[in-house]
């Protein structure tokens, strides 16, 4: 159970247990229960938005290079602050870092299964990733689940926190709508190595694959999705609130799935390529018929 789920279980009007005792029983600190995050200042949001733009252009930038470029643009900022903001935004340079510590035993890191693996059919491999979405007065996080072979975006969710909950919701929706894939690939982000997320995959008998830490090229197709989404929609729109962001993202993903042709798919859209592949394997008797009602859509 995630921290936010346990926090929501605390009952301020409980007649027997105090808040302190409930927090102890749920293994959360009392200070974290009372904590109300402060909104970032306009100056900080402007810096974060510029960092996001730079990272889309130069995904190999670490905190040192990012600091240097920002300072050359007359932005007064130190490397420690840049490192903290990059961590908050979920930005990580693509180079492989040395292994300096072992993960928590409850958070198993799985091997990368896609190396030299031919992936030519829908529902063979899915992938997921999270990106930072700049807003007029704040920011959100966006997760998407994508079919690797056809680039079809299967589900997505927006959240104002980096807890695993919104990733789990997107994963469950994709499995419910499209059936489980054989392999699911992610990076080693805390949301994806959490028991809440990997438990859903294990319950559905889905093999788990994870990129090498810092290796964004292992999940290259969804990284390209973020780049297109930001340059074609997010950066061109004044995101006044979460409702506006949701509409903009929903409209663009619908355009991406159903209208925009892909040269790598022989000019087909991701939606067409996905359902053509599913129909082919249905005709061969290799997928269950109860998942074919959407093929005519």
Written description of the protein model:
By secondary structure, the protein is an alpha/beta fold. The protein folds into 3 domains: about 30 residues, no CATH class; about 50 residues; about 170 residues, Ribonuclease H-like superfamily/Ribonuclease H (Nucleotidyltransferase, domain 5, 2-Layer Sandwich), CATH 3.30.420.10. The chain has 12 helices and 5 strands. Strand 1 and strand 2 form a beta hairpin. The longest helix has 17 residues.
Decide which structural class fits the backbone.
alpha/beta
Query: Briefly, what CATH class of the largest domain?
Result: Alpha Beta
| Mean pLDDT figure | 84
Spatial gap, N to C terminus? 36 Å
Largest sheet strand order: 3-2-1-4-5
A few lines on this structure:
The protein contains twelve helices and five strands.
